[in-house]
Amino acid sequence: MTPSSKPFVHPVGAKIFLGNADALSALIGSRIDDPGVSAVVLDMSMLRECDSYGLRVLLGLRRKANEAGKKLLLLKPSPIFSEILKLLNLTHIFSCIDSLDAA
């Protein structure tokens, strides 16, 4: 990371599923590879649906970020997605934040 690097923030939208997860992976993966980006923040506040493929993509992006020495942060996960993380015992895997100040 360079001293001028900053977080990249991306609104996820209402769904992460088989139909759009690969596009999300490509976009966020390129930002993880960007030396000017210190962290990737996914705004999860509008997310209403996430299938197993979408979750797999998020886990892969988290791994890629970790390997690059960067953070993948979930901003304001919706109540539905928060419940998914709890049910699947993934709350310790993802870093969730309530504001961009924490990025």
Name a few traits of the molecule:
single chain, 103 residues, alpha/beta, Transcription Regulator spoIIAA, four-stranded parallel beta sheet, two-stranded parallel sheet, 37% helix, globular
Radius of gyration: 13 Å
Write the CATH fold name: Transcription Regulator spoIIAA
Structure class: alpha/beta
CATH class division: Alpha Beta
> How many distinct beta strands?
6
Helix content: 25-40%
Number of helices: 3
Mean pLDDT metric: 95
Strand order in the sheet with the most strands: 1-3-5-6
Q: Quick summary of this structure?
A:
The chain is of the alpha/beta class and 103 residues long. The protein contains 3 helices and 6 strands; from the N terminus they run E-E-H-E-E-H-E-H-E. Strands 1-3-5-6 form a 4-stranded parallel beta sheet. A two-stranded parallel sheet has the order 2-4.
Description:
There is one protein chain. The chain has helices spanning 21-33, 52-67, 79-87, and strands at 6-11, 15-16, 37-43, 49-50, 71-75, 95-97. The chain is α/β, with parallel strands linked by helices and 103 residues long. It has one domain: STAS domain (Transcription Regulator spoIIAA, 2-Layer Sandwich), CATH 3.30.750. Helix 3 links the parallel strand 5 (71-75) and strand 6 (95-97). 28% of the residues are buried. The mean pLDDT is 95.
Task: Present the secondary structure layout.
Layout: E1 6-11, E2 15-16, H1 21-33, E3 37-43, E4 49-50, H2 52-67, E5 71-75, H3 79-87, E6 95-97
Parallel strand pairs: 1-3, 2-4, 3-5, 5-6
